[in-house]
Amino acid sequence: MKATLDVVLFLFSSIAIGAATVGGVVTSACAVLGGGCWWWLRHRRRRP
Predict the structure, then answer these.
(1) H runs (alpha helix) in the chain
(2) Average pLDDT, stretch 29-45?
């Protein structure tokens, strides 16, 4: 019984760490893309 509990806890922590890592990567990518788009729009909007 204890071995099963250990396996379940291990899987749960692995899934939690994986979800946190994916969330961090997605957040970083969105921040980089958002910053790049903002910078591009700001520098593109020059009046002729």
Answers:
(1) 2-44
(2) 92
pLDDT of residue 16: 96
Backbone angles phi, psi at 6, to 5 degrees: -60, -40
How far apart, in whole angstroms, are the C-alpha atoms of residue 26 and residue 10? 24
CA distances from 44 to 17, 28, 30, 31, 35 (A): 40, 24, 21, 20, 14
User: Which single residue is written with the structure tokens 């204890």?
Assistant: 2
Q: What percent of the chain clears pLDDT 90, i.e. is strictly above it?
A: 79
